[in-house]
Write a structure and sequence with these properties.
Layout lengths: L6 E7 L6 H4 L9 H16 L7 E12 L8 E12 L2 E10 L2 E14 H9 L4
Antiparallel strand pairs: 1-3, 2-5, 3-4, 4-5
Pfam family, one: FlK
Organism: Candidatus Weimeria bifida
InterPro entries: FlK, FlK-like_dom, HotDog_dom_sf
Length: 128
């Protein structure tokens, strides 16, 4: 059952594949902001996936963030999310990202509960 307070966590090690220079979000070999966003989404969706009905998923609809500190290749980044609000099918999460030296980012993330089949069908209609 979905309820406020559900928490999630996702971790990655910074490698050349998730640096700003490789992901195209900058020129430096540090953890990329787009990689942080993906890690937030992973922590959030996976924290509530087991509470949804069969055939349902969540999709990200908004993200606010501050990327406060750079993380070099070789360090671990962990994102922790907390479900803070449920408004019908809209879920709001707060989140913090940290590396071994401390907080590197924080913000909020909203996701929307969708019916998988209907959502994919609507997206596929764009091809017509």
């Amino acid at each position: 059952m979905l309820k406020e307070g559900i928490s999630g966590e996702a971790t990655t090690c910074v490698s050349t594949e998730n640096t700003a220079v490789t992901m195209g979000s900058g020129t430096l070999p540090v953890f990329a902001t787009p990689a942080m966003v993906a890690l937030v989404e992973k922590a959030a969706w996976s924290s509530v996936a087991g509470e949804l009905e069969d055939g349902q998923s969540t999709v990200g609809i908004s993200m606010t963030l501050s990327h406060e500190s750079a993380t070099p290749v070789g360090l671990k980044v962990t994102v922790k999310t907390t479900l803070t609000a449920i408004d019908r099918r809209k879920l709001t999460f707060s989140w913090e990202a940290s590396d071994e030296a401390g907080i590197i980012g924080r913000g909020t993330h909203e996701r929307f509960i969708v019916t998988d089949e209907k959502f994919v069908a609507k997206a596929e209609r764009k091809k017509s």
